[in-house]
Amino acid sequence: MAPLRIVFMGTPTFAVPSLNALHRNGHQLLAVFCQPDRAKGRSKALQMCPVKSAALKLGITVLQPTSLKDPHVLAKIESLNPDVIVVAAYGKILGKRLLRLPKYGCINVHASLLPRWRGASPIHQAILAGDSETGISIMRMTPGLDAGPVYQQEKVSIAQGIDRTSLEEQLARCGADLLCDVLQSIEHRQPRPQDESHVTFAPIITKEMGFVDFEQSAFDIERMTRAFHDWPGVWCRYGSNRLRLIDILPMSHSHQFPPGTIIFCDRKTCRVAAGKHTVFDILKIQPAGKSAMPISAFLNGHPLSSNDRLELMSEPDD
Q: Total domain count for the chain?
């Protein structure tokens, strides 16, 4: 099949391998759309997103509209006359007019085995749920949230102990390869509808989702540390101190302690009661405003005592 005229829409690191793969495969990248530059850090300096940085290195025109509903933006895309619009974690909704515009429609690279985990956080949710596998779905976009028919899927095993960032890197590479396979023969492909009876949703991650509830099992809390390891983190309180659980070791263990109770603590070990007949050892911890450290280093300066309680955060860490 001849190279396609493509408009690419994406923002984070996940989308970069797909952009690079399209370029390597000789497709004509007419423009790249990504989110506007954001102020980051204490200096509040504007910072470009990973996709913008990658596109500029490839010499591709970058557009960063605040809305795709702007008539001037729609007119610009129409003037480019793309065969297909490829979307990978762009972060904006495409309207019906835009979805109907390209010859082959709008194609989305989604990081789950649809219809499982439709929405903004499929990788987080796969880890939180303890799924043994996830994958990539290349789908044709419709007005419904990740509800369009699927061209092709590929499964990816979720390795024991893997965190969200590492799993995202695997899925991003898989998505780039699968996208190019689909586009190579898209004129002959017919996507299959999703099974609506198996739909699950992956909501936008909020800071409050990282507040650990010790009524959960220790295994659920450990999955939180891997799903939220970069943001928002897994947070609790000890007295007036905010503590982030970086790494824990969960275990099954029947006990009569209220969840959150420190049931054993010496200079090297801190064991905490959780729900559902489980406990966990804290391996690595981070006090708010400080660097992460092994639990032994933390205990040297912050002596904890058996029967003390770790508590649920009640408000965001500003």
A: 2
**Cα–Cα dist 143/162, whole Å:** 33
Cα→Cα distances 229→41, 135, 215, 221, Å = 18, 20, 20, 12
Of 182, 202, 222, which marks where a domain is finished?
202
Per-residue tens of pLDDT for the chain, all 318 residues: 789 999 999 999 999 999 999 999 999 999 999 999 988 877 778 899 999 999 999 999 999 999 999 999 999 999 999 999 999 999 999 999 999 999 999 999 999 999 999 999 999 999 999 999 999 999 999 999 999 999 999 999 999 999 999 999 999 999 999 999 999 999 999 999 999 999 999 999 999 999 999 999 999 999 999 999 999 999 999 999 999 999 999 999 999 999 999 999 998 899 999 999 999 999 999 999 999 999 999 999 887 888 999 999 876 554
Q: Which domain holds residue 250?
A: 207-301
The verdict on 219 and 276 lying in the same domain is yes
158 in Cβ contact with 127 (< 8 Å): yes
- Residue 71 included in any domain: yes
